[in-house]
Design brief:
The protein has 116 residues and is α/β, with parallel strands linked by helices. Helix content is 20%, strand content 34%. The protein is built from 3 helices and 8 strands. It has a 4-stranded mixed sheet with strand order 1-4-3-2, with helices on one face. A 4-stranded mixed sheet has the order 5-8-7-6, covered by helices on one side. A hairpin with a 5-residue loop joins strand 6 and strand 7. The protein is globular. The mean pLDDT is 96.
Length: 116
C-alpha cells in the first residue's frame, strides 16, 4: 500500500524562516523547495536533500518536538556532527548504526545515523 514517505513536518515559530534556511541550507546543505503560493502565505519553509524532504510549518503557540524526530541517514556522521555544530548527543544504543541527536534552531530533535 505504501511506497515511501513524501515528507516529515516539523513545527517552527512564526517569522524565523531565515534561521531555518541558515541551518537546513547553510549548515546541512539541503535545498529549499518553493512552497505553493497558498501555503507560502502561512509561513514556514520546505527543504530537500538526499531523498529526504522536511517541511517546517508555523505553529502558534510553538512548542518544539523534544521526543518525536526524523531519523536522517548520512554517509559521514562526523561531518554531519561538525555541520550541525553546537551540542550533539552521541548514542551507541542502536545496533548497526553510529548515531547522534541534535536540535534545529527551534529546539526540534533531530537524529543522524550512519550504518556501520
Amino acid at each position: 500500500m505504501f511506497t515511501g514517505i513524501h515528507h516529515v513536518q516539523l513545527a517552527m515559530p512564526a517569522g524565523r524562516e531565515d534561521e531555518a534556511r541558515a541551518f537546513f541550507v547553510g549548515a546541512l546543505g539541503m535545498t529549499e523547495v518553493e512552497k505553493p503560493p497558498v501555503l507560502a502565505a502561512r509561513g514556514g519553509a520546505w527543504f530537500r536533500g538526499g531523498g529526504v524532504e522536511l517541511h517546517l510549518g508555523v505553529e502558534e503557540p510553538f512548542a518544539p518536538a523534544r521526543k518525536a524526530h526524523p531519523g536522517l541517514v548520512v554517509y559521514d556522521i562526523a561531518e554531519a556532527a561538525r555541520r550541525v555544530g553546537g551540542d550533539v548527543t552521541w548514542d551507541d544504543d542502536f545496533p548497526g548504526f553510529r548515531r547522534f541527536y541534535a536540535h534545529d534552531p527551534f529546539g526540534n530533535r533531530l537524529e543522524f545515523l550512519q550504518p556501520l
